[in-house]
Amino acid sequence: MPQSQPKESPIRKLFKLLVLVIGPLILLSFSFGPLLQAFGPSSSPDTSLITEQLRAEADGYRAVLEREPDNRIALEGLINTQLQLNEPQGAIEPLKKLLELEPQDRGLRAFLSQIQQETGDLEGALAQLQILYEQDPQDSQVVQELTGVQMSLGRHAEAVALLEKYLESAPEDNDVRLRLAFIYARTNQTEKAIALYDQMIAADPSDFAPVLGKAMALSAAEDETLRAQAPQLFEQAARLAPPQVREQIEREAALYAQLNQPQAVESPTDGVEPQFTPTP
Fold it and tell me: What percent of the chain has pLDDT over 90?
């Protein structure tokens, strides 16, 4: 069974839910983006000097690796300098080499998959996540990230099958249930999405996340009768949510209402998914 996790903050819960509407890849990129910013050179007047020093360090590590390809200290040093230079592409090969030396290091493999996503190598990231999944099929975070990459690659059926299989043994994992319900809604399986949201709402009527998810799903439904139910659910989600996220929910409700207004002429933005800027 999955290990229990600390209770998530309301702001983070809202952020994760809204990001699902944009696409799972953004959530994965979000988790890695601040890391690059933290490692990256500062914007102070000494930036050029720092960058020059980092490049010299990187060249030194490469020289060591030419003589000693398995030198862990040099591999780790090259990875760190590439990240500090905000050049994640240059960290991939030393990361792969380090992983060859430490194939059971799950953290290292997950890190590699995130860098591959950041640099656009989704197939490479998928391969690493698949290995992590095969090692531990009950790792909830791996399941979510794996299905996120599958969704980004358009492999919706594979993502659904994986999530459904996971939930057979962990039916109360709400993060995974929220993701599955989103995919149902995105693939026009609205009835399945609503049924799953209703299960979560019945289990915990005080949780705003499934109510908000249901409102979003109904707003995107083809059936006008279903769409008409969405505003009330947005209001309910806002009432249930803590004050620090209520305003954000109200903005999303207004955006959905605007997008669903009848159009006299075809808009150039028809069919484009709404872009949100939630605050983590």
Answer: 64
Give the range of the structural domain holding residue 111, as residue numbers without chain letter: 24-170
- 145 is a domain residue: yes
131 occurs within a structural domain = yes
Cα dist from 219 to 23, 216, 225, 269, whole Å: 17, 5, 10, 17
Report the pLDDT averaged over residues 119-126: 96
Look up the pTM and report it: 0.73
Q: What is the mean pLDDT of residues 205-209?
A: 94
Residue 99 and residue 105 in contact, taking contact as beta carbons nearer than 8 Å = yes
Residue of 264, 261, 262, 194 lying closest to 233 (CA atoms): 194
CATH code of 125's domain: 1.25.40.10
CB 140 within 8 A of CB 118: no
Residue 122 forms part of a structural domain: yes
